[in-house]
Amino acid sequence: MAHQAGITNFMKDGAVYKIFTQSEWHAFEASGSFAGSSDDKRDGFIHLSSKAQVPSTLAHHYAAADHLMLARVDFGKDSQKYLKWEISHSGDRFPHFYGILARSDITAFSEIMREMDAPWTVSKTAFGDIIR
């Protein structure tokens, strides 16, 4: 059922989210494109999350992190054909992007931080409804 919420969320606002490490984000900003993290490259696609999936993605894949970047990705019509909702090992459907992210695909971004073992906080209010 959780995977359906992610797809419904996407259909309402057309956005998915990418979590970047600080080094990934700085490289992306410098080059204007992002071909993926080492995990993305290993799997052959860029891992994304729906708005509803961001908290669980942070908990499962970034448990040791304390300072990340969260970016809202709005693909243009041409790029959407490379976005596929696929079932992950957990049984939920996640958005996977089979292409290279362009800086112009990012419509909002924010640092997300936390003290170890504390809840994530967002430095801008744009994503306050995602992470509490």
Please estimate the helix content: 25-40%
CATH-scheme architecture: Alpha-Beta Barrel
Q: How many separate structural domains?
A: 1
Class derived from helix and strand content = alpha+beta
CATH C-level: Alpha Beta
Could you give a quick summary of the protein structure above?
The chain is α+β, with helices and mostly antiparallel strands.
How would you characterize the overall build of this protein?
It is a single chain. The protein is of the alpha+beta class. The chain has one domain (2-116): Protein of unknown function DUF952 (ADP-ribosylation fold). It has 5 helices and 9 strands; from the N terminus they run αβαβαβαβαβββββ. It has helices at residues 2-13, 22-31, 38-43, 54-61, 77-80, and strands at residues 16-21, 33-34, 46-47, 67-73, 83-87, 93-97, 101-102, 106-113, 121-122. The strands form 3 sheets. It has a 4-stranded antiparallel β-sheet with strand order 1-4-8-9. Strands 3-6-5 form a 3-stranded antiparallel β-sheet. Strands 2-7 form a two-stranded antiparallel sheet. A hairpin with a 7-residue loop joins β8 (106-113) and β9. The radius of gyration is 14 Å and the shape is globular. Mean pLDDT is 82; it is low at 1-12.
